Amino acid sequence: MNKAKLRKKYKALRLELSEEKIEELSLEIANQLLNLPVWEKEFYHLFLSIAEQKEIDTENILHILQGKDKNVVLSKTNVKDHKLEHFLLTDTSIIKKNNWNIPEPEGGIPIPPKQIDVVFVPLLAFDEHGHRIGYGKGFYDNFLSECKPEVIKIGLSFFEAETPFKEIFSSDIPLDFCVTPNKIYSFKN
């Protein structure tokens, strides 16, 4: 199946999920994350969920990070350049939805990508080798290419891995881990 068909398949599968099921699966994913060897780091990039797209609710992950007194970094979308701008989440951060219903910080303390240690990566699907399919605009591949080489990339998925994708591009940056409600996939060699 090509990327376009996989995108369509997983968007449809997510749309079938009830709010209660999303809440349940999101909590299971957050609990699985506690088993990863990533909690000694300092700066964690988290995406805020687009509820209308039935994305994983990352609120539980945010609570874990705050409970562990970690620095949480959020992004603002720069649509013109297909880039993300990153800001430290603070008590005074103002979060508003943009035109695509993405919750974003209005501004704040900028954090350069090279300072980020762990990135929780949104996706629609992923394969057994850690390649992911997002919405197809390249925002996360652009962002991850700006991070330090040792940044830990963790995908979050309601669904299990697909067979290896046939369409892999040189700009595609594979994950180190992907966490589902039932399993942690490790792609590190």
TrEMBL record:
EC annotation from Swiss-Prot or TrEMBL: 6.3.3.2
List of residues binding substrate: I50, E55
Positions in coiled-coil regions: 3-35
Protein name: 5-formyltetrahydrofolate cyclo-ligase
The protein's required cofactors: Mg(2+)
Domain of life: Bacteria
Keywords annotated in UniProt: ATP-binding, Coiled coil, Ligase, Magnesium, Metal-binding, Nucleotide-binding
InterPro entries: FTHF_cligase, FTHF_cligase-like_sf, NagB/RpiA_transferase-like
Molecular function in Gene Ontology: 5-formyltetrahydrofolate cyclo-ligase activity; ATP binding; metal ion binding
Reactions catalysed: (6S)-5-formyl-5,6,7,8-tetrahydrofolate + ATP = (6R)-5,10-methenyltetrahydrofolate + ADP + phosphate
Residues the record lists as binding ATP: K3, A4, K5, L6, R7, R132, I133, G134, Y135, G136, K137, G138, F139, Y140
Sequence similarity: Belongs to the 5-formyltetrahydrofolate cyclo-ligase family.
Biological classification of the source: Bacteria, Pseudomonadati, Bacteroidota, Flavobacteriia, Flavobacteriales
GO biological process: folic acid-containing compound biosynthetic process; tetrahydrofolate interconversion
